Amino acid sequence: MSKKMPQHQKNWWLIFHLLFTAMWIGGGFTQIVLILIVYFTTSGEFLYSAHSFMHIFDLALIIPGALGVVITGIVLSIRTHWGLTKYYWIISKEVISFVLILSGGVLNIWVQEAIQITLLERLNALHNPSYIHDRLMLLVFGASQLILLLAVILISVKKPWGKVKSKLLPQTSNQ
Known about the structure:
Blueprint: H1 7-38, H2 44-79, H3 88-121, H4 129-158
Helix pairs in contact: 1-2, 1-4, 2-3, 3-4
């Protein structure tokens, strides 16, 4: 495998990277909308349905989007001049993505608990302390994840930090 990829290949990898990003963030936005609506519903069936759809969007958009972003991001980093650790902005995106993926597993636990509680209790779930806790955690952590995803997009566009200065990185001279 050659070190650098041709521009046309890089463009295709970037397109897929952006499509996977759209899947991930679209799923996140959808989940936030669902959890906000849950706060205003008076239907037990809607409580159950909303949490079930949150799980479906997780499986259909968020997980594949996150995995696709990671895979295409690694390929783009390795096969272009960016590298995995040459720039602070790339390192920050890697760290944030890692945190988002790990915390997504915790969010899924709360979604699963909310599904089980609303399946059994429907509207009475609104009086269950476990459900109230899960719903709050889904709102707080879901919104936090969405904010971090938006921060990653901002970092990708702005590239706010420069190159990592290290004796470990090969230095190129401008002769």
